[in-house]
């Protein structure tokens, strides 16, 4: 029983926050106890995980369906609310066709729930389904899939302890994946591994770094190409690996010969000697691992940024061995799984392209309906077309009115829809634009599986009863699917295990997995049904493309979309230890708010003096997209010309300022580089 009197069971389940995937259990003292990972039980937990139960019983929880009547929400019985959804979505499908509906899957919900949501979209006849993996690592997945054949971590978290050099590019694992940092990266560093940190902002990860490259936002390619040039120039490449496992070295070498390390360093605003030091640390290590985050991926050239990093791994033979690889750290507890199970517009469950006729037929054998063959719209593309070719939205556990770039415009675009239904725990900013809001289940109330950042599938188990008339998400989705499609029998499941069993038949990377096999531990994909084991280190003998070799790529720098006007700073956004994504969960925890209740705008002392800003002053941050106020934190941690704030808060709403220029391939927005004016807020 917790301090509020609500009863919890104590079943091991998975933390609802980051992609490390710590197992947690409820503790009588009113919090959570941690068991880090399913395999290595160390009892580790971070502040967010410890506060995870705080939000389950929050007074803001929705306990009844809400239906809009005369511009206001009123509570309604489930039957009436679901009828409204069937009329709203079904009406749009009848009038405009299924491609007029956009489905937002959820990186924070289970594999089973996301599988059913994408199946609903495809049985209705559209591939318009996406999840917020689009906003974090779609560019990483695009580049790694193209070159290596798989878009996930090549190695495992545990395996990072074996490395001799950690090259952390655009990630801050000390704050964003804290248990992984403490359990795997720090022990490796204490055992002598070198840490190179490429980040415009000095943060907790930088404190452990041997080399810090505080690059200008948007110059990742300049830095990676300069490092590649040094690797070639100083003979730090792996000739045998290049000959046996790569193609295209001659062309890349010729291009790198033209790279002027000093010029690239100047463009990036870093010391050329530090670039050489980083190259030597990476190139001379026996085992070197790249760890990459959203600082790399969230650019309009995010895919190219990752291509440039992949070159480093291939040039030095740091692929396919323990302690090496290219390892994207995923943000949400099931962002990997939501993509694995097909919550993406261009691929079916298991990453089979929707354009592949044989893959569609395999799915049709299970579903009784063949999915459409044209890729659907990504999240950001869809919001740009609200009120035009997109007329309705099903938003499941996401909050795009806060999390998408140019968020004020996105929020207003929701008003252009004919119909919108939101399934969530709270009346979020997006829900305020909905016609119907359905009260779903919190992480502690649901059963199913999630897949963490290193491809481990783990079980979630219910620990608490649903409040009021809230329902389990899986029940809501299957109920809606039976009502909305003409294949109700395709959504008759006897609980989440039956959904998972179907998933293992449809998605080859999950083939052979089972709830029984996962038990209290995990199963890692790609899974071998015959061996009953997963694969820790990918690409050891062949790449996941099926080829023995992977291509090296020539990557040229791409300037950011926002050209800075005179006097503007580059706003770059990120995360902090105590909060999570749009803050819909973490800002409802008193404990986390006590630790960090307010966001600040970090600004370099030189920029602050030029603008007459003192530490603690209120400042106005603005550009053509919006204007927000924040409290200034004057600190040398951010480089001159750069300002930093998080995207966890509704006020200041960082995404009111971010731009919606997209990477042409992955369609990821350029969150990490926005031109802004910063000035003291005028007194009233
Ligand atoms: Fe949860 Fe991530 Fe913290 Fe682990 S490290 S307790 S998964 S937020």
TrEMBL record:
<dbReference type="InterPro" id="IPR006655">
    <property type="entry name" value="Mopterin_OxRdtase_prok_CS"/>
</dbReference>
<feature type="region of interest" description="Disordered">
    <location>
        <begin position="668"/>
        <end position="684"/>
    </location>
</feature>
<dbReference type="InterPro" id="IPR006656">
    <property type="entry name" value="Mopterin_OxRdtase"/>
</dbReference>
<dbReference type="InterPro" id="IPR050123">
    <property type="entry name" value="Prok_molybdopt-oxidoreductase"/>
</dbReference>
<dbReference type="GO" id="GO:0046872">
    <property type="term" value="F:metal ion binding"/>
</dbReference>
<dbReference type="Pfam" id="PF04879">
    <property type="entry name" value="Molybdop_Fe4S4"/>
</dbReference>
<dbReference type="InterPro" id="IPR006963">
    <property type="entry name" value="Mopterin_OxRdtase_4Fe-4S_dom"/>
</dbReference>
<keyword id="KW-0560">Oxidoreductase</keyword>
<dbReference type="GO" id="GO:0008863">
    <property type="term" value="F:formate dehydrogenase (NAD+) activity"/>
</dbReference>
<protein>
    <submittedName>
        <fullName>Formate dehydrogenase subunit alpha</fullName>
        <ecNumber>1.17.1.9</ecNumber>
    </submittedName>
</protein>
<dbReference type="Pfam" id="PF01568">
    <property type="entry name" value="Molydop_binding"/>
</dbReference>
<dbReference type="GO" id="GO:0051539">
    <property type="term" value="F:4 iron, 4 sulfur cluster binding"/>
</dbReference>
<keyword id="KW-0004">4Fe-4S</keyword>
<dbReference type="InterPro" id="IPR009010">
    <property type="entry name" value="Asp_de-COase-like_dom_sf"/>
</dbReference>
<keyword id="KW-0411">Iron-sulfur</keyword>
<feature type="domain" description="4Fe-4S Mo/W bis-MGD-type">
    <location>
        <begin position="8"/>
        <end position="58"/>
    </location>
</feature>
<keyword id="KW-0479">Metal-binding</keyword>
<keyword id="KW-0408">Iron</keyword>
<dbReference type="Pfam" id="PF00384">
    <property type="entry name" value="Molybdopterin"/>
</dbReference>
<dbReference type="InterPro" id="IPR006657">
    <property type="entry name" value="MoPterin_dinucl-bd_dom"/>
</dbReference>
<dbReference type="InterPro" id="IPR006478">
    <property type="entry name" value="Formate_DH_asu"/>
</dbReference>
<dbReference type="InterPro" id="IPR041924">
    <property type="entry name" value="Formate_Dh-H_N"/>
</dbReference>
């Amino acid at each position: 029983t917790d301090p509020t009197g609500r009863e919890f069971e104590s079943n091991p389940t998975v933390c609802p926050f980051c992609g490390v995937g710590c197992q947690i259990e409820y503790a009588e003292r009113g919090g959570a106890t941690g068991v880090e990972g399913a395999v290595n039980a160390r009892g580790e937990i971070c502040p967010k995980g410890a506060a995870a139960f705080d939000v389950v019983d929050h007074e803001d929880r929705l306990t009844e369906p809400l239906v809009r009547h005369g511009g206001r929400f009123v509570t309604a019985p489930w039957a009436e609310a679901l009828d409204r959804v069937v009329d709203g979505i079904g009406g749009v499908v009848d009038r405009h066709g299924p491609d007029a509906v956009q489905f937002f899957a959820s990186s924070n919900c289970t594999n089973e729930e996301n599988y059913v949501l994408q199946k609903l979209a495809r049985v209705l006849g559209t591939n318009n389904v996406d999840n917020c993996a689009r906003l974090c690592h779609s560019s990483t997945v695009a580049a790694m899939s193209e070159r290596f054949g798989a878009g996930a971590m090549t190695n495992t978290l545990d395996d990072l302890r074996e490395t001799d050099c950690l090259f952390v590019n655009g990630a801050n694992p000390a704050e964003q994946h804290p248990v992984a940092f403490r359990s795997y990266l720090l022990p490796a560093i204490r055992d002598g591994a070198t840490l190179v940190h490429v980040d415009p902002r000095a943060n907790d990860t930088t404190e452990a770094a041997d080399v810090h490259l505080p690059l200008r936002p948007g110059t990742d390619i300049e830095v990676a190409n300069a490092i590649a040039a040094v690797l070639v120039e100083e003979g730090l490449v792996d000739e045998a690996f290049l000959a046996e496992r790569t193609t295209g070295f001659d062309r890349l070498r010729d291009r790198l010969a033209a790279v002027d390390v000093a010029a690239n360093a100047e463009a990036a605003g870093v010391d050329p000697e530090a670039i050489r030091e980083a190259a030597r640390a990476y190139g001379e290590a026996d085992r070197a691992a790249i760890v990459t985050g959203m600082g790399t991926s969230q650019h309009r050239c995010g895919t190219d940024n990752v291509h440039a990093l992949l070159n480093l791994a291939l040039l030095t033979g740091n692929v396919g061995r323990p302690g090496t690889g290219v390892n994207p750290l995923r943000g949400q507890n099931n962002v990997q799984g939501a993509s694995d199970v097909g919550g993406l517009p261009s691929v079916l469950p298991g990453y089979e392209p929707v354009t592949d006729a044989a893959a569609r037929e395999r799915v049709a054998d299970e579903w009784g309906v063949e999915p459409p063959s044209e890729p659907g719209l990504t999240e950001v593309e869809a919001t740009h077309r609200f009120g035009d070719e997109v007329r309705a939205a099903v938003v499941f556990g996401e909050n795009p009115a806060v999390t998408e770039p140019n968020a004020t415009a996105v929020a207003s675009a929701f008003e252009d829809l004919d119909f919108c239904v939101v399934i969530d725990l709270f009346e979020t900013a997006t829900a305020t634009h909905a016609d119907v809001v359905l009260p779903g289940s919190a992480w502690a109330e649901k059963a199913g599986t999630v897949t963490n950042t290193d491809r481990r599938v783990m079980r979630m188990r219910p620990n608490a009863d649903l409040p009021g008339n809230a329902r389990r998400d899986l029940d809501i989705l299957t109920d809606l699917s039976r009502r909305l499609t003409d294949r109700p029998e395709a959504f008759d499941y006897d609980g989440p295990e039956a959904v998972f069993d179907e998933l293992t038949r449809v998605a080859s990377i999950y083939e052979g997995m089972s709830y029984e096999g996962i038990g209290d531990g995990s199963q890692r994909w790609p899974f071998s049904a015959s061996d009953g084991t997963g694969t820790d280190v990918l690409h050891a003998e062949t790449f996941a493309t099926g080829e023995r070799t992977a291509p090296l790529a020539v990557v040229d720098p791409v300037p950011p979309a926002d050209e800075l006007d005179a006097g503007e700073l580059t706003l770059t956004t990120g995360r902090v230890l105590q909060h999570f994504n749009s803050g819909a969960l973490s800002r409802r925890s008193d404990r986390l708010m006590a630790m960090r209740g307010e966001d600040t705008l970090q600004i370099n002392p030189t920029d602050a003096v030029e603008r007459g800003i003192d530490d603690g002053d209120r400042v106005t941050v603005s550009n053509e997209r919006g204007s927000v106020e924040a409290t200034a934190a004057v600190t040398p941690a951010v480089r001159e010309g750069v300002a930093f704030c998080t995207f966890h808060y509704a006020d200041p709403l960082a995404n009111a300022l971010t731009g919606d220029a997209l990477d042409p391939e992955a369609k990821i927005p350029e969150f990490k580089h926005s031109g802004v004016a910063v000035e003291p807020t005028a007194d009233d």
